[in-house]
Amino acid sequence: MTQPRFPNTFLWGAATAAYQIEGAVHEDGRGPSIWDTFSHTPGQTFNGDTGDIACDHYHRWRDDVALMRDLGLQAYRFSIAWPRILPEGTGAINQRGLDFYDRLVDELLAAQITPFVTLYHWDLPQALQDRGGWANRATVDAFVTYTEAVARRLGDRVKHWITHNEPWVVAFVGNLQGRHAPGLQDLRTALQVSHHLLLSHGLAVPVLRANSADAEVGITLDLSPIRPATDTPEDQRAAQLFDGGWNRWFLDPLFGRGYPADMLEFYGDLMPAVTTDDLATIAAPFDALGINYYRPTFASAVPLDENPLGYRSLSGPELAERGYEVTEMGWAVEAAALDELLQQVNREYAPKALYITENGASFPDQVVDGTIDDPRRLAYLHGHFQAAHQSIEAGVPLRGYFVWSLMDNFEWGLGYSKRFGIVHVDYQTQQRTPKSSALWYRQVIAANAVVDPE
Ligand code: FCB
Questions:
Q1: pTM for this structure?
Q2: Residues 35, 32: Cα–Cα separation, whole Å
Q3: Which protein residue's CA is at the shortest distance from atom 9 of ligand 1?
Q4: Superfamily of structural domain 2-451
């Protein structure tokens, strides 16, 4: 069967993040990050797992690039560890930290893999958290200084920049739900943090442009189509709050509309002061919107004294009852929702270009005779690639697709218990083994089409 092809310039890649794969937390002058502190605090991560060693990528990067080349990857999205570049968050730049990424970028380019660099994938220098973290406006300035240091060093070769990864998670999972570093539980702080993240993005955009000629600059949001769990007015209101607080809260100001009025009303005086200058800064025109998409979400109303956001999402068992396939994360599998989301974002906000900067699934993998057959992950990707193709057909300017993740890694609060990789990692030996999904992905990339699994 002939499969529909993707545009010739379409980029197929995979993504990772520094703290999830690098390890080597004390090497070459790296300072501590909030994730070192959090993961070393008893009770905060599954099994007490930490990123101390992770996938040891800091020592194995050359082999990892060779692996990417073998899989035929055309692009690789990774993040820079701020505490390697500025161990104290501000002040002296640690050249050895920059050297690591400099070598990595050269190796990628030699392998004809286009680097996509994320500046902030959650590992804030602990020294900055000690001074209030993202709730302190000084951290915004520190981020801009850090951005400049990285862009000056890599900007001649890196032409795709992502300021932030998933500001919703940073602000709300880290500062309201407390499931991520820094582990705070305060809505006012979370709102202040979200505003500062957006502000730092807006200020970083011109700095990246100034230090990286012709670069494509963007930001990555985790977006999800939100549906009411039932058609009661309560659940419909919950879905509105969910969509407003998760999707529109970031999209609207980035695209020059300011914060959504319904949400400002809902948050009331918990909302920090926002000036029109701030809003203009946040709305700095950018080139590409990155979307991390994993699942559709079903919103169910809960009383405000149980959850100050007024909603919860349906759990894995509840989704299974509705007939959904559910991943290890308790997330519903629905590929068509990706197409729905892409078309909706395109219609509503008309970004110049879009990338899927993350998409993938965690399923229980089994190593049998040294091989890992992962048909569910493969089917997940198959369906989502097809959905992406439909969006392109419908006119969505989707330019590339990054599978999460290149390899199994430290899944934040869930430690090593969840495997998202298309490459299996044996954490005892650090051996990498491509799963059947990776071998199939290699065929997809070679054909630039969603080939049928064998
Ligand atoms: C996203 C994160 C990424 C990874 C995936 C599973 O929220 O950006 O680091 O943890 O989820």
A1: 0.98
A2: 8
A3: 17
A4: Glycosidases (3.20.20.80)
